[in-house]
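Reopening closed ticket. The problem is back. First fold of the pair:
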Amino acid sequence: MRRPEQVSALLQHAPINEVWGVGRRLFEQLGGMGVATAAQLAEQDPKALRRMFSVTLEKTLRELRGEVCYVLEDGPAPKKMIACSRSFSERVTELAALREAVASYAARAAEKQRAQGEYACALQVFIQTGQFNERERRYANVATVPLLTPSSDTRDLVATALAGLDRIFRPSFRYLKAGVVLMDLVAPGLAQTDMFAPAPRPGGERLMAVMDRINAEFGCGTVRPARVPPAPGWRMKQELKSPAYVSRWDEIPSTNCL
């Protein structure tokens, strides 16, 4: 609808309560001023409406006049960091179990990063014990590891995360949580790399693309690094999790009508 006469006719027949941002209270206040349609709202003085109500209503008025005040976005802005972390179902004391968890989180973060189409220039890994049990010793630490070559390859990111974990792990603690954060994300070809850094793995992008397609079709974790177990004992318990009504078709409530 681009012709001015069409827009004018629509505004004249549109009740004021159908305009975005006009709720019940505004509807009553504007009605007391004799404003009943969108066309009548568009004829008001913008500065006066701003003083009497809000800048939001002023912008709505200007939008009705054809002025752009709210820019429509094609999609969400790319994330600057991508994180994956979970609390364990039970305390973890062994380095081997922590390495499994960190490898799992790094692999999942790598999948998210590839879906965004970017590369990580650095990686952060953290571990921590419970912070509220006074009878347990507390410990928390984080390691930030730069990547010599920006990467979205799961193998590179898992290896980097495990190297960071080895630096901060301390025995004799009961760990409750771990996580991986991919940092300094850049688009392909925009990262300034070290000319002496090792070259990316040959065929790595194609391999990751195939792995992502398989996991998308047959389920997350169908193809995974060997360090990632299929059903780890430390995995967060979710037996009492609420159904995902808005994101999973198979969990939408259904009823049979006779």
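Second fold of the pair, where the issue appears:
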Amino acid sequence: MRVGVSGTFWNMEATGSGQYLRHLLTALASSMSPDECTLFFPRYLVQPPTAGVPWPVSVLSSPFDGRHRKLAKVWFEQVAYPRACRRAGVHIAHVPYFAPPLFPTVPTVVTIHDLIPLILPEYRATRYWRGYVRLVSTAARRAALVLTDSKASARDIRRLLRIPSERIRVIYLASHPRYRPLAESERQPVLERLQVPPRYLLYLGGFDRRKDVVGLLRAFARARGALGEVSLVIAGRLPREDSAFAPDPRKESARLELNEAVCYTGWVEEGDKPALYAGALAFVFPSLYEGFGLPVLESIACGTPVIVGQGSSLEEVAGPGGLAIPPGDVGRLADALVRLVSSPQLRERLSLRGLEHASRFSWRETARQTLAAYRWVLRTSR
């Protein structure tokens, strides 16, 4: 069996799709030989993979390279990649993000991590993105099999794309082995370098509106009197400018007069994240919608309990390792912050349960199930 994988996100390690691609292919390398898989990479992204790729790489050009990035992207996904799969004689094409070809040349597997563009209108605000979402939604219905990260996302795919259950498989993601409980001596040098306060609640992630960081700041302000000397650490690359789509949280923390109680770390390197998680009293991720929510799994793998928003995949990922609150409910979020901070016993109980839950996720198992999905498609497409 030969598999051709779209490598668009290989160099985008900061994205969830980039992490998925890298971890999956690395784990698959223990079960597939190099001649069984090719990574197809678009030339418009300029820098093809040069290190760490476990498979041969084929770089594909388009007529729009260096001229029109969006058209080059669509050409790669819809023309160059399916053509290359056919020419290379692959048996299965795997597109590891929501962009399958409308006219597949070989049986195609697509991983749909989430349906954010369909569920949240602000993610398809321009004419280009509305057209693009219609294109890939139609194409997804022609895929031989859809992989997705959670049961919540599978429900959305059935409901919004009208793809039957028998053509959808839930295959969970996993956290990197670096995410584990750390002794104080292991985490303290990192925390001192990042200049975080000794007792803190943590948010780590993006700042688009669905993440509801503004709601978290308001809940923290409401709970502040009951939290004592506990600070809020907000980690991640801040928006370049304040906008309705991605509000700058510093503006809200200033309005709430929280400046001294909130610590903004900026971008955090992957190697520093375990210490940041492990040192927190709790990780707070009140997102309104996620397809999986990898930071939640990373946190409970470090032994830190979580507070998550209800209604999408986050309760599924957190399992018994945290508390869940209605999304957008500032009062309930404030109550959850106080409850966790004021009860060491509750934090310990959630920590132990979360660690046990996190141990069930591994990239080796993700790869095993993905390989089984390839074989199923190969068998049923003949």
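Update: turned out to be a display glitch only; the data is intact. The longest helix spans residues 69-88. DSSP finds 14 helices and 13 strands in the chain. Please close again.
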